[in-house]
Amino acid sequence: MIANDRRLDRRAAMRTLLENRGELLLVTGLGSTTWDAAAVGDDDRNFYLWGAMGAAAMIGLGLAIARPDRRVLVVTGDGEMLMGMGALATIGVQRPPNLAIAVFDNGHYGETGMQASHTKAAVELTGVADACGIKAAFDITDELGLSKFAGRLRNAATTLFARIAIRADEPPRVLPPRDGVLLKNRFRRATGIEHD
Amino acid sequence: MPDWRDQIFTALKAAKIRQVGYVPDAGHARLIELCRAEPTIRAVPLTSEEEGVALAAGAWLGGQRAALLMQSSGVGNCINMLSLTKICRFPLLMLVAMRGEWAEFNPWQVPMGSKTQAVLELCDVLVYRVERLEEAAETVTAALDITYNGDLTTAVLLAQRLIGTKRWVK
Description:
The complex is a heterodimer. By secondary structure, chain A is an alpha/beta fold. Chain A contains 9 helices and 8 strands. The longest helix of chain A is centred in the last third of the chain and has 13 residues, at 143-155. The N and C termini of chain A lie far apart (48 Å). In chain B, 43% of the residues lie in helices and 20% in strands. In chain B, α1 crosses α2 (29-37). Chain B is globular and about 45 Å long. The chains are: A alpha/beta, B alpha/beta. The A-B interface holds A 27, 47, 49, 51-67, 84, 86-87, 89-90, 93-94, 180-181, 183-184, 187-188, 191, 193, 196 and B 18-19, 42, 44-48, 50-66, 80-81, 83-84, 87-90, 148.
């Protein structure tokens, strides 16, 4: 970590997004954002991805359509979002008002040796989201922007997107359960879904 | 007797399918139209088929059933995403319109079309194939039953012979 790097700390950013989460449902992407959510605190209403890279935003869409009574937050990394970038186009067409997608962007593939991602060189995900029709798309680089976005999460009337610039560091891994059936069933139970 | 595509739609409705992800295919055109017009179904056009696997997982987490419509070429796009349905045992029915088989005009459809069933089976998807019109709806209903009785991923392949040969020269 560079001492004068003023980009946001990923763990603190996750904490801000989940503060007083109420009924918020959370989906995290393969890799660091899953560890970030677990570090804030394991919760039955978190659905963590341990694989299926590129799936996070679309799981959020299916969930948001199925549960219009709940707010749904997807937090994923730049690499995971890049792999499923078509999802932004699909979500731009549907735009459920209860869905928010936050991308923790450190410009690197953190799990595989910190290789540079496309966002480091050229790609602006906020612009991509906006061009896909997700007009409430925010480029967040500081605490103030982050806390404003966290506030919007509670009551937005349209799909939200945020690209959140975070430092490219690797805080200690905090691992949530990795049994997929357990994660699925406890999520449904905790959110009042009877077995079908 | 209603059209076989209308019968498949009736089977989806009877099974309380609430979200239908699709990448358009001529063989599914009628079914897509019916789903889009149905108020109890949210039809979601996808840019690529694997999005639909994840969509269905999210739907299930939220208590809804989803189905996925695609052409056989799209099955290849789903391979890694099918690890999601397998490892979490998300129920999912895929309806696959076949290309690259019966009297196919376009040879570029053949490599994926000829391997579609094998690829699905390697991914532990249960595969049912429909060759005759009168079997279409009952096969879809049976696949839906086993999907939701067992939290399994299934695919119904609609043979190109059933759908009809694409006419290239008018």
